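2024-03-11 09:14:02 DEBUG pipeline.ingest accepted 1 chain
2024-03-11 09:14:02 DEBUG pipeline.ingest length=130
2024-03-11 09:14:03 DEBUG pipeline.predict start
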Amino acid sequence: MSLAAVQLVRDAELVDLHIESYIPPRLWGYDLFERHDRHFLGGRYFGHLDLPRALDGGLTGGMWSIATNIARGARGRYAALRDNVAGLRATVEAFLAVGFSKFVVRPNEPPESWPAELDRLATALLPLQT
């Protein structure tokens, strides 16, 4: 990579609008706070974004996708949502512990009830405001 490219990234706000790093932790215990570029693929393909590489690369913002399995029934999707919100809270707490301070949370698709969705997110995340 050229010096000019590195300088451009360092002088700009670098935002990734499609981060799916929440899927690997659910499936095989991928740790977002561990560097994952040391395997034979060098962090490619199965090397979802991790915090050390994001910081090294100068990432200043991102849109984190938290997907649920659409093949589940309504109860299964609700249970997955509940688990995902708890996981999101734990991740936000960990990010706060290492110095991140700004978060915007937005559902990927319209919920059945916006007031209920906002109440759940507020209950989970408002106490973390700094």
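2024-03-11 09:14:41 DEBUG pipeline.report The longest strand covers residues 14-19.
2024-03-11 09:14:41 DEBUG pipeline.predict end
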